[in-house]
């Protein structure tokens, strides 16, 4: 009997759900709890799965289980299949209740206030009952979500040197970055007292900073900026990928952060934050639309991409005219 026929005859949705759960937890007991079965049932299910495939999918260790080389391929496929099934069922439930489908995508924080918000408003005007969910805040986060099939597309950047092998990329817009602090910060006063002489990186790194994680493109670019200025990474650092938490941390202390201009614009206008006169991010590549290679988008996602591109073109035209 062929492998395909064996899998079709023996494996059910619950088996694939178990494999997907085992991709995120090292023990069979925890995986069983995630799919609401007992551990003995999960043990038998895993034995059935390995018998159907004809090879061991996991190696058993004292601290749990680890996928074999072939098992990694199986588990990855199971996780992708489960994520796609979850999105399909959620979409069907929305439609059953009279809605018009579901759109799940990721977006970096710099794109959200302008392009993403406008494009979402556009598609919601066309499809008022469309369900929309936006996940992630940094390119490394949304890259993981996209690879796991937890989102259909993303607005961001390549986060790793090999991402171009997994995703297609269509540029949308630049993302101006600003160095910001709270209004009334001593550095703002120091700049004003110097009759607008610039601030040096050697002075900035002596203050506390709120930084994105090292896996994000913006953080890597900032570290390169430190290197070019021949200064070390600040010693007093909070790593934070949440834009809301970063804004709160800035306003409640003397920390410095590098954030997209679109994110801090309203806070600067309201005199809650102030920008420092430091050039940063000149070499930061444009963000754009990330999709999985060789995978067609749904009609809803295709329509949303069209709105994103139209908004990006409009923004570029306005910038050229100003």
TrEMBL record:
Similarity section: Belongs to the LysR transcriptional regulatory family.
Protein's UniProt keywords contain Transport: no
A Gene Ontology molecular function term of the record: transcription cis-regulatory region binding
Domain HTH lysR-type: 11-68
Residue intervals passing through the bilayer: none
PROSITE patterns from the UniProt entry: HTH_LYSR (PS50931)
Biological source species: Cupriavidus pauculus
Lineage of the species this protein comes from: Bacteria, Pseudomonadati, Pseudomonadota, Betaproteobacteria, Burkholderiales
Protein name: LysR family transcriptional regulator
